[in-house]
Amino acid sequence: MTSLANLLDFDLDGLAAFCDQLEEKRFRAVQLFRWIHQRGESDFSRMSDLAKSLREKLVNVACVQALPVLAQRESADGTIKWLFDVGGGNAVEAVFIPEDGRGTLCVSSQAGCAVGCRFCSTGRQGFSRNLRTSEIVAQLWFAEHFLRQHLHRDERVISNVVMMGMGEPLQNYSMLVPALRSFLDDHGYGLSRRRVTVSTSGVVPMIDRLAADCPVALAVSLHAPNDALRDELVPLNRKYPIAEVLDTCLRYLRRAPRDFITFEYCMLDGVNDQDEHARELVQLMRSHAGQGIPCKFNLIPFNPFMASGLTCSSAARVQAFARILSDAGIVTTVRKTRGDDIDAACGQLAGNVRDRTRAAQRMAQWRGVEHTAQHARRTIAVSHAGAITGTPSVAQEH
Ligand code: SAH
Ligand code: SF4
Description:
Blueprint (H helix, E strand, L loop, with lengths): L4 E2 L5 H10 L4 H13 L13 H10 E2 L5 E6 L5 E8 L2 E10 L2 E5 L3 E3 L8 H5 L1 E4 L2 H18 L9 E4 L9 H12 L11 E5 L3 H10 L3 E5 L5 H7 L8 H12 L7 E7 L7 H13 L7 E7 L13 H13 L3 E4 L24 H18 L6 H4 L12
Parallel strand pairs: 1-2, 6-9, 9-10, 10-11, 11-12, 12-13, 13-14
Antiparallel strand pairs: 3-4, 4-5, 5-6, 7-8
Helix pairs in contact: 1-2, 5-6, 7-9, 10-11
The site of iron/sulfur cluster has 11 residues, from helix 4.
């Protein structure tokens, strides 16, 4: 038996090509795409304005297959986190963060991650596999349509997507790009390019390709002002050192929907958080390539996890660091993390599991989190994106 094509794998052009094979015109693909993404419909028989003949064809060759939800947790502030089963004992997380005037979904791109940053529990788990386009899109598909029902809203709930969940999106490029296109498509989710952000540890050639193929907002995880330190924290730096990353950022800016690059900087106590590091960053940003880099900085207090051997910088240290950057004219925000007390930051539910994590183990951790959360009467927080929810302390983040 041939397997059914999952239509969540296709951007609109892909769906049009698929429909073409069925000898259906492009406008049929548009109708179908709208049913799937705008209306959240997965049952072809309910797509009432599609020709009956097409619906009958589709049943035999295609499906709209979402991801099973292993767990869902909602915090008092409306933040919701889902754990999705991607098979083979792997699970990935997506997080919805509601804020005034916008709703952000933090989306995963891989099960595990091969980059292996020292401060990241996803990286510590190692790499399991790339997500398919359908598995990336399914996170938004599910979250958007679940939330509309849950919040009794007819209109769009999720206005922003950040590829800041588990995995390095630019190491899963071919699956990422069609997903981004579905996010942006007016017949899909209709998100603005400025409101879809790819966060990367600095996969230089793929940043260039993204500029050409699908320029969305770019965030680069910098974490250090010099190669010696970044080599230790972000092993990919040995392949693509800071100067090359910054060069590609300058090239990206020619195509980017925003006129700055966001640099993320995880604040690690005694490691990269000293005044001299901040001053070195200022120098780097001002002088790179003789012209400097238009940028903003996001300082992320480290979310500790067991066996990382690292601790978060004090609030006073983070503020002092932010002050040096902002005094030098660099717009700097500090993300507020929540939930570090319950080990619930992104990729960190699995943080105590040293080996490649199995879904069952993750489930056990979720239960543990829930218990701790209830016990402590604290909200659960989430994700690297938990970090996104914060109130900027130095300047407002747009
Ligand atoms: N792989 C991509 C995107 C996912 S990670 C990247 O590295 O950019 C998203 C963000 O969360 C990155 O900036 C990453 O450095 C940060 N992060 C990872 N682990 C963290 C931790 N324990 N505490 C705080 N931020 C963390
Ligand atoms: Fe991978 Fe990003 Fe974690 Fe580094 S920070 S290990 S690139 S997910």
